[in-house]
Amino acid sequence: QVQLVESGGGLVQAGGSLGLSCAASGRTFSSFAMGWFRQGPGKEREFVAAISRSGSGTSYTDSVKGRFTISRDNAKNTVYLQMNSLKPEDTAVYYCAAGDGNYLSRLQYYYWGQGTQVTVSS
């Protein structure tokens, strides 16, 4: 099994930046593609970004393209989400997840973190 723990959430002004981290336990972190999801108040959970096993491939939902960057460091068993130019609509609980599949946009996710709150004020 893989356990995932997110950190780095908080309160930030619109236009500001936050960097999220997701630390994974286990021996097979590099075997998984990783994704970030978010769930805003009263909304469904939505896909944000994903990264391939090696880190060479990434995928983003349209609303965050050009603003968010997903990356990973397999030696540290950690995946990151750098969020720039934040908007109030980015306010949500952010979750990281581990999975696999043939396409980054359609991964099957097996493990999920507990989430970290990101609040963006105007």
User: Could you report the average pLDDT, rounded to the nearest whole number?
Assistant: 96
Structural class: mainly beta
Q: Which spans of ≥5 residues are poorly predicted at pLDDT below 50?
A: none
Helix tally? 0
The rounded Rg comes to: 13 Å
Distance between the termini: 40 Å
Share of residues in helices:
under 10%
% residues in beta strands: over 45%
Major sheet summary line? 7 strands, mixed
Principal-axes shape call: globular
List the helices and strands in order: EEEEEEEEEEE
Number of strands: 11
Descriptive account of the structure:
- The model has no long low-confidence stretch (mean pLDDT 96).
- Strand 9 and strand 10 (108-112) form a beta hairpin.
- The strands form 2 sheets. Strands 2, 4, 5, 6, 9, 10 and 11 form a 7-stranded mixed beta sheet that branches.
- 34% of the residues are buried.
- The protein has no helices and 11 strands.
- It is 0% helix and 53% strand.
- The protein is an all-beta fold.
- The radius of gyration is 13 Å and the shape is globular.
- It has strands at residues 3-7, 10-13, 18-25, 33-39, 46-51, 58-60, 68-73, 78-83, 92-100, 108-112, 116-121.
